[in-house]
Design goal:
Order of helices and strands: HHEEEEEHHHHEHHHEEEHEHHHEHHEH
Domain SGNH hydrolase-type esterase: 254-491
Shape: elongated
Number of helices: 16
Number of strands: 12
Oligomer: single chain
Keywords: Membrane, Transmembrane, Transmembrane helix
Transmembrane segments: 141-167, 196-216
Largest sheet: 5 strands, mixed
Radius of gyration: 33 Å
CATH topology of the largest domain: Rossmann fold
Protein name: SGNH hydrolase-type esterase domain-containing protein
Strand order of the largest sheet: 1-2-5-3-4
Number of domains: 2
Pfam family, one: Lipase_GDSL_2
CATH superfamily of the largest domain: SGNH hydrolase
Helix content: 40-55%
CATH class of the largest domain: Alpha Beta
């Protein structure tokens, strides 16, 4: 007789509606809701912060594409980070949600690829290629961010699942009837944990997609009002043209502001109209360097100079127009070194100093925001200046001089008290001014290091510190002097000594 083959019973098929009903029931569970909220409101910011920027090259420039660190605000601008890691907001690109694009630019490179944007035959194609490259870079970052969010969600789901199993074991330990075995507990929990994980992943990815859509919409809406790449990241770099005839006989030069022009010092014999207009002294940094090195150093510094009006552009001093200092540098034949002192005038340092003298408390957000704005603008112009110096014909050694602090935090003397009727400076105000000066110096140092320039840090005896070790007193002019807070003759000599130590030996 033929034996009838016995069929194994097929496992019961789960109906799609039953599966959907299980998900809906799980969605009403408070542990699942808590997990979803954690993954969306903490997981997405964590994914944004942990996803590394993507490196791309477009128009001959190295750019990192990513997203700025999330904040608690509902909307915010995209961000541009330049030399010195200064963060510049791009107000035209305002994005809702946590995905706000960020571009990180290194030193601007002048090369054939960058010049294509100015070539009439290549301008349109070059800009289209740049846009495509930037878009692809951000999409690549977005995809890595999604993978990071999935990993964060799975990790959070695993931790939540362990907590739920531990809670179930605790409940089992309190009942009198027979306890469930480990296999039974896992069988009961597996479906619940799976549904919880699926819901958390679905919610996280939907929220990530919504954030991406809002970032795309905000970026496209902002770019619609930008007609060129320069509108977004600044204008094309144009270095100052050489000014005047060729100049011979100088080994070095000093460019900068009133600190190195040494306002208030003895007059220069046979001074030129530019020397008089710029208030250059006979014991300026250039003159002291020349004496220390036994060589000729040209003084191009000018009182009141900034990067845009003084170093990279002409400066008006009374009825005298002083040519751009960088333009004059280019005409010095045989130039071996250049010393640069710049910054306080660009920031309007006298404004903050006067305000802190007069106000009972100068640590308000309004003036701090104004300082941050001016510092960001200085960082942008400083990058242009560094590029100019790096392209000087003679390729001289460049030394960037940092800014000095005027007071020690414990300063207590007439110079810190100020004139009668003002609040004066206390420890909190001096520490605030020192912190802002440190922010300026950070940009000065960072930019110099990126271009391989040297950095001089003059150690001057501050006001209110009493006589220095050599009994010469402070190296800065006090409030009673015609030019407060500027170096004295001894201070100028100390600055020259700090600079001379960094200079390469002359032939």
């Amino acid at each position: 007789m033929l034996r009838t083959a016995q069929r194994r019973p097929e496992p019961p098929r789960r109906h799609p509606r039953r599966h959907l009903g299980g998900l809906l029931r799980e969605l009403r569970s408070w542990p699942t809701l808590l997990l979803i909220a954690l993954c969306v409101f903490a997981g997405i910011p964590a994914a944004v912060a942990l996803t590394p920027n993507q490196e791309i090259v477009t128009l001959g420039q190295h750019i990192s594409v990513g997203a700025r660190t999330p904040t608690l605000s509902v909307a915010g601008p995209a961000q541009l980070v330049q030399i010195g890691n200064t963060e510049l907001d791009i107000p035209r690109l305002r994005v809702y949600g946590p995905l706000r694009p960020q571009l990180v630019l290194g030193p601007v490179q002048r090369n054939a690829a960058a010049a294509e944007v100015l070539d009439p035959d290549r301008t349109r194609q070059a800009r289209e290629d740049a846009t495509t490259t930037l878009t692809n870079g951000f999409l690549r970052w977005y995809a890595f961010g999604a993978l990071g969010l999935v990993a964060i969600t799975l990790a959070a789901s695993a931790i939540a699942g362990c907590i739920r199993i531990l809670a179930l074991l605790r409940r089992q330990s309190r009942i009198d009837r027979a306890h469930l075995s480990i296999a039974e507990i896992w069988h009961r929990s597996a479906g619940t944990l799976g549904r919880m994980t699926v819901l958390a992943l679905t919610a996280s990815l939907l929220a990530w997609g919504a954030c991406g859509a809002m970032a795309y919409q905000g970026t496209v809406r902002g770019l619609a009002h930008i007609s060129s790449l320069s509108d977004l990241v600044g204008t094309y770099h144009v270095s100052p043209a050489p000014v005047g005839p060729k100049v011979f006989g100088y080994t070095g030069a000093v460019i900068g502001d009133s600190r190195v022009a040494r306002v208030g010092g003895p007059p220069i014999p046979d001074a030129t109209p530019a020397d008089l207009a710029c208030e250059r002294s006979a014991d300026s940094l250039a003159r002291e360097l020349g004496r220390l090195l036994t060589t000729q150093v040209r003084n191009l510094a000018c009182s009141g100079a900034t990067i845009t009006e003084g170093l990279r552009g002409p400066q008006q001093r009374g009825d005298q127009t002083v040519p751009a200092q960088v333009g004059l540098l280019k005409q010095i034949d045989g130039l071996r070194f250049v010393v640069v002192a710049i910054g306080p005038n660009d920031l309007g340092w006298a404004d903050f100093l006067s305000y802190c003298y007069g106000a009972p408390d100068c640590t308000d957000n309004l003036t701090q925001g104004e300082f941050d704005y001016r510092l960001a603008a200085f960082d942008r112009e400083y990058g242009n200046l560094l590029q100019d110096l790096g392209e000087l014909p003679e390729r001289p050694q460049v030394v960037i001089m940092t800014s000095y602090d005027v007071f020690d935090p414990d300063a207590d003397c007439p110079d810190s008290h100020g004139p009668p009727g003002v609040a004066g400076l206390d420890r909190a105000k001096i520490e605030l001014l020192s912190a802002r000066n440190a922010a300026l110096n950070s940009i000065l140092r960072s930019g110099a290091e990126k271009y391989g320039f040297d950095v001089a840090r003059p150690g001057l005896a501050q006001l209110c510190t009493g006589p220095a070790g050599d009994a010469l007193g402070p190296d800065l002019q006090g409030l009673a002097a015609p030019h407060p807070f500027h170096p004295t003759g001894v201070g100028s000599l100390r600055m020259a000594a700090a600079t001379a130590r960094l200079l390469e030996p002359l032939p």
